[in-house]
Structures are given as C-alpha cells and as structure tokens.
Amino acid sequence: MLNEILAGLTKILGPIATLSKDRRELKDSALRAISNALDETYLYYRDLEKGSPKNPDREALLVKYWSAAAIPVRHFDEDLSRACDHKSEYWVNPDNYDNQSISELGIGLDDVRMAYRQMLKPNFTLSRRRK
To answer: Could you tell me what percent of the chain has a pLDDT over 70?
Structure first.
C-alpha cells in the first residue's frame, strides 16, 4: 500500500516540477522581452540627447519591442503588461502624449524599469505587485 502511495506521489510530482520549470522559462522570456524594449528605448533616447534626429524606423521597432513585451508579461503582472501595451501605442506617435498623460498611464520609462526590476526578484509574486 505504501508503495502505491509513493508511486502515485511520484506521478504527481513529475508534472508539478515540469510546470514550475515551464513557468520559470515563461517568466524569463517575459523579462527578456521587457529588457530588450527598455534597452532599445534608452539607447534611442541617448542618441536623441546626443543630437541625432528622430528616427521613424527606430520608433517603429520600439512599437514592436513593447508590443512583444506585453504578451508574455500578462501571465505575471497585468499592470506591467498594460504599461508595455501603452508604451507600444505611445511609440506609434509620441507627439500625441504629454508628461501628464505619460504619468497617468504609468508609462514613464523609469516607472516601467522599476516594475521590471520588481519582477526580476526571485520571490516576485503578483500579490506583492498589487496594492
């Protein structure tokens, strides 16, 4: 009887371990997508500050980076996913946004970076992110 219980537990624990690994991989993918979007955005702003002209091609890429980040993040943080989606919309036409609307939407680059860094923590849970 004990052997049957142990065999049953072994059958259950295998899939649970796989789910945990899959969840970690999904989280890593989400973090990578946000990291890429953040890096490319900071680099673009750096170039603008150095005097480079606005570049519609780079801004179009930023739209894609932020859209791509929103998708996997939705499994971990709905607010951050929404911010990434709004960042994507922002880069379609940044001139349509003023500082107040950026603040209200929570899409300031530093705000997004702070949320990203919270997700980097190994013990991040959705309940910690919510207020």
So the answer is: 79
* Tokens coding 98: 């003023």
DSSP annotation of 121: S
d(CA 64, CA 67): 5
pTM (two decimals): 0.77
- Report H helices in 50-122: 56-73, 78-92, 99-105, 109-120
- Could you give the CA distance from residue 62 to residue 38 in angstroms, rounded to a whole number? 9
Q: Cβ distance 100 to 108 under 8 Å? A: no
pLDDT in tens, 27-45: 899 999 999 999 999 999 9
Angstrom distance (rounded) from CA 110 to CA 42: 10
